[in-house]
Amino acid sequence: MTVLVVALICFFTDQFISYKMSALLLLMTVSFLAMILDIIPVLLAAVLSAVIWNFFFIPPICNFQISNAEDWLMFLLYFIIALVNAVLTFKIRKAEKEARDKKEKENTIKLYNTLLNSLSHEFRTPISTILGAVDTLQENKDKLSVENQDELLSEIDNAAIRLDRQVENLLNISRLESGTLQPKYDWCDVHDLVNSVIQKLPEQNTHTISFNAPDNLPLFKIDAGFTEQILYNLLHNAVQYTPEHTHIDVQVEHLSDNCVITISDNGTGFPEDNIAFVFDKFYRLPNTKTGGNGLGLSIVKGFVEAQKGTIALKNNEKGGATFTIAFPAKTTYINHLKNE
């Protein structure tokens, strides 16, 4: 069809362009088709363009007779060039596709190796802790003091929580990539949500967490589950990877029809060269202490973007870092909601 359209345009503009120029335009059309179609349609287009050029453009027109040797040579060259061009372009496309597939396969293998290495460590540690503590309790139950038993039970509990968090991260990243997770919007009191997340953080930390929100903060129509996971991952990372006695500040604002959440700390911040990569899957900062598989911030970004929001990270001038999250959200107040 494309060849016919170009041929018609050339035919009705023959007073402005020569039949040799028409040959170039038809060759360009075949070249374009070779970039987007399979080999058989391209070969058919090449043959069809040669036949059309002979019949409608080479004098005498409207028959297949060619009057001189020069036109015969041009026709043969056109036919050969059209076919060769079609085949070579198709082979180039095929080679490029094979190169892309090979690169994607290498990236997939690298990703799975990273995943397996991460899981082998992150799963083995809590599982070993649980098994060791259980064995100690079973074999020395009568010899252990109540304090020792409570300590072992606490280790089992912490290890189980860590293991559950790793599994949850893997499930979340898998659901995000498959597109099966979709936000469920409902009215949410972000003030209560933040306080709830703070209460769920590990108790054995020396960090100070403060939460500041305006008294007149409205209710936001957001996905409470997604937002809770965002807050938990960011605060958990801040508690886990900043120095002891670091101050962590959480703020929530209503700005320009957006729910804006900022989480900042006065720790050591991020290396400037690494900030662009912190939201990548399985990425961990160099020399980071053990405990994590590099999925937390990737999940945060996925849940933010699922709500059509944005997330940004920057280092503070006086030390530490700040995460800023903003997603569009409808707002209302409790008294308005009661009247609906």
Automatic annotation (TrEMBL):
Keywords: ATP-binding, Kinase, Membrane, Nucleotide-binding, Phosphoprotein, Transferase, Transmembrane, Transmembrane helix, Two-component regulatory system. GO terms for cellular component: plasma membrane. Its main location: membrane. Residues 118-331 form the Histidine kinase domain. The keyword Manganese does not apply. It catalyses: ATP + protein L-histidine = ADP + protein N-phospho-L-histidine. It is a multi-pass membrane protein. InterPro entries: HATPase_C_sf, HATPase_dom, His_kinase_dom, HisK_dim/P_dom, HisK_dim/P_sf, Histidine_kinase_KdpD, KdpD_sf, KdpD_TM. The keyword S-adenosyl-L-methionine does not apply. The chain crosses the membrane at residues 24-52, 72-90. It comes from the Bacteria. It is found in: Membrane. It is an enzyme of class 2 (transferase). Its EC number is 2.7.13.3. One of its GO terms (molecular function) is ATP binding. PROSITE patterns: HIS_KIN (PS50109). This is histidine kinase.
